[in-house]
From TrEMBL:
GO terms for molecular function: oxidoreductase activity, acting on the CH-OH group of donors, NAD or NADP as acceptor. Gene3D superfamilies: NAD(P)-binding Rossmann-like Domain. It comes from the Eukaryota. Keywords: Oxidoreductase. InterPro entries: Epimerase_deHydtase (IPR001509), NAD(P)-bd_dom_sf (IPR036291), NAD(P)_dehydrat-like (IPR050425). The keyword Oxidoreductase applies. This is NAD-dependent epimerase/dehydratase domain-containing protein. The keyword Aminoacyl-tRNA synthetase does not apply. Transmembrane segments: none annotated. One of its GO terms (biological process) is lignin biosynthetic process. Residues 24-254 form the NAD-dependent epimerase/dehydratase domain.
Length: 350
């Protein structure tokens, strides 16, 4: 093989570097989770390359402001549907974190997620990466109406694809198929794969834009929704999710799925926590069923693998929610409490 061969060069470089010199790549670096993964990697001394559709876009400015970014972070243009752009992004990288994934129920999301994941795995293997950490979702785990309510869900559980498709949970379908694709392709290429499976992710955002997860909190805090559904959801702190990614990368024995879930709450409990933390806000107070149906029961998860194999400790949900709200206030996403109450009363009187 020629000494100018980029594949041979990439493999040699990745094998020769110690951990403190390792270059790693994060896809979707500017997103909610991706930004925190970049921050955690920089904090630990890695050299980081982040991918974005447009690295010069001002929405990525927060990444360049991170501690250590000036010396050890570069941003590059890449598209998961363009394998050549991925190969260029992954050149010389010891590891890849595939975080990029839009949260959407657009039917086009499924083929893009699957083909994009296939491209990421193969481009990483082509360029000599030793490990891929893939961001999945608990939507790929718990969506099964036939499962016993007393079951404890762990890494062996999968959502019912037909049920998700029938109920138009396209995001869950996309995550399931993308994760299975990553598993199959990584095994075929001999690439170590670790999968982080987070739930609804909350906590402070590094980027300035309001994301889906923080909007989930804001709409109940401000009373923007008149009622909350008779439903439960699982939550994790974005900082824990980012740490799980890096810990899974750093532990050579880490393989397969790792659930990252701190708490499971009914929406009534979520509203109660928000009301207790921020009594000055008009938190949504009424369930849409209004006593017509039994309260949905919180399901149970086991995060033993993440705790025991990765050494992950979970941030209490109250702190995650508190920090998320303070962040939204500082970014101007939330009006001061008095103005928020006035707006809520005006809307209620219409």
């Amino acid at each position: 093989m020629s000494s100018d061969d980029p594949l041979a060069k990439a493999k040699a470089n990745s094998n020769d570097k110690g951990a403190e010199q390792q270059l790693v790549c994060v896809t979707g670096a500017g997103g909610f989770i991706g930004s925190w993964v970049v921050k955690e990697l920089l904090r630990r001394g890695y050299r980081v390359r982040g991918t974005a559709r447009d690295p010069a876009d001002c929405k990525n400015a927060h990444l360049l402001a991170l501690e250590g970014a000036k010396e050890r972070l570069t941003l590059c243009r890449a598209d998961v549907l363009d394998r050549d752009s991925l190969r260029a992004a992954f050149a010389d990288c010891h590891g890849v974190f595939h975080v990029a994934s839009p949260v959407s129920n657009d039917p086009e999301l499924v083929p893009v997620a699957v083909e994009g994941t296939r491209n990421v795995v193969n481009a990483a293997a082509d360029m000599g990466a030793r490990c891929l950490v893939f961001t999945s979702s608990y939507g790929a785990v718990h969506m099964d109406p036939n499962r016993s309510p007393d079951a404890v869900l762990d890494e062996t559980c999968w959502s019912d694809y037909d049920y998700c498709k029938r109920t138009q949970n396209t995001y869950c379908c996309a995550k399931m198929l993308a994760e299975r694709t990553a598993t199959a392709e990584a095994a075929r290429r001999g690439l170590r794969l670790a999968v982080v499976v987070p739930s609804v992710t909350t906590g402070p955002a590094l980027q300035r834009a309001l994301n889906v997860s923080t909007h989930h909190v804001a709409r109940y805090l401000t009373g923007a929704r008149d009622t909350y559904p008779n439903a439960v959801a699982a939550y994790a702190d974005v900082r824990d999710v980012a740490r799980a990614h890096v810990l899974a990368y750093e532990r050579p024995a880490a393989r397969g799925r790792y659930l990252c879930i701190a708490a499971v709450l009914h929406r009534a409990e979520l509203a109660a926590v928000l009301r207790d933390l921020f009594p000055q806000y008009p938190v949504t107070a009424r369930c849409e069923d209004d006593g017509g149906k039994p309260m949905a029961r919180p399901y149970r998860f086991s995060c033993r693998r993440a705790k025991e194999e990765l050494g992950l400790e979970f941030t209490p949900l109250r702190k995650s929610l508190y920090d998320a709200v303070l962040c939204m206030q500082s970014r101007g996403h939330l009006l001061p409490a008095i103005q928020q109450q006035q707006r809520h009363h005006q809307r209620a009187s219409l």
